Amino acid sequence: MTELKNDRFLRALLRQPVDVTPVWMMRQAGRYLPEYKATRAQAGSFMDLCMNPDLACEVTIQPLERFDLDAAILFSDILTIPDAMNLGLYFEEGEGPKFKKTVRTQADVDALPIPDPERDLGYVMNAVKTIRHELNGRVPLIGFSGSPWTLATYMVEGGSSKEFRHIKGMLYGQPDTLHQLLEKLAESVTSYLNAQIRAGAQAVQIFDTWGGALSTPAYLEFSLKYMEQIVHGLIREHEGRKIPVILFTKNGGQWIEHIAAAGADAVGLDWTTELGSVRARTKGRVALQGNMDPNVLFGSPAGIKAEVARILDSYGYGSGHVFNLGHGINQFADPEHAKVFVDAVHELSARYHR
Ligand code: CP3
């Protein structure tokens, strides 16, 4: 296996010493980059891009050519699993993801197959292998999946949602049916992430984008419980190295102690929670990832640097912080401002690691 030339991302996730704070950006490969739009046009559709390992590899590497990032993230989508469960994923221009079939009844849940990742999601594993080969040890590769709850919101609603009318109707009207759906998803996500790790993913992140839409007891019962189950089923060491696991619940700040106790190495935070206070609350038991508001990139270079400085200071001295945006970079963000952000993290963080 090729030696990693830059492993500060993995080291920070394991709270080992680093020279500077590592940084990557959620959705770092995406429409804010003109070269991404060109490759996507060449592929045809977004899903064609995900399913073509060479082109998926190309867009994964694109942001690394522009910015001094400390990690690459597999180019794919969280909705590949429901697609492999035969729900028929498609994207309508400007409208986000949609499914041809929805999951609303016990019979719908019973009919869902549990995908075999090698057979049904082989294109993802091929992308992971191609990217690892192409990275040649430059930085680690992150694999990922959606959380069962977040995947279920798309499957039950049939696409993106603001109110979650159908899935909350199920949660409060047919909780046993929802639990069976989440159970199937937890099993699917576990084997999917393990297949990504076997294919070469060096860390994995679970995106719980919609956990924050739940009440506290509902979050613990319908989201965190299943992420915890997944964490305990994951391969935690591969190729002689630890495979760190990151849990990211958007708007999950008030549940940080619970999330930190779920067995993952790191917890991702959006910008609504103060990093320093979370570090105190979690007592150094986990690494923290985040948490600049992506819209700071719409401000000035001086404003971006000031915000990076503030966040570094909030975390304070020592390892255990991976800098990131608190959510995905916006498609209208200026790539020059993204560069200011990434460089500022490295420049301003050295003093916290002496
Ligand atoms: O971070 C990366 O660079 C890796 C790629 C990545 C994508 N989606 C590519 C993508 C990752 C990690 C995701 C995760 C994802 N997908 C999440 C969780 C993270 C989050 O944002 O909360 C969610 C909820 C999805 C579902 C999804 N996929 C939505 C809601 C959309 C539409 C978004 C939009 O802005 O229109 C997608 C499509 C998608 N996934 C795009 C990209 C680059 C844009 C599609 C395009 O090129 O047209």
TrEMBL record:
Q: Which reaction does it catalyse?
A: uroporphyrinogen III + 4 H(+) = coproporphyrinogen III + 4 CO2
Subcellular localization(s) per the UniProt record: Cytoplasm
Molecular function (GO) terms for this protein are: uroporphyrinogen decarboxylase activity
Listed pathway(s): Porphyrin-containing compound metabolism; protoporphyrin-IX biosynthesis; coproporphyrinogen-III from 5-aminolevulinate: step 4/4
Q: Top-level EC class, please?
A: lyase
Please list the residue ranges annotated as the Uroporphyrinogen decarboxylase (URO-D) domain: 22-31, 142-158
Gene Ontology biological process: protoporphyrinogen IX biosynthetic process from glutamate
* Keyword Cytoplasm attached: yes
GO cellular component terms, A-Z = cytosol
Q: Which family does it belong to?
A: Belongs to the uroporphyrinogen decarboxylase family.
Quaternary context: Homodimer.
> NCBIfam families, alphabetically?
hemE
Please report the name of this protein according to its UniProt entry. Uroporphyrinogen decarboxylase
Its lineage opens with: Bacteria, Pseudomonadati, Pseudomonadota, Gammaproteobacteria, Oceanospirillales
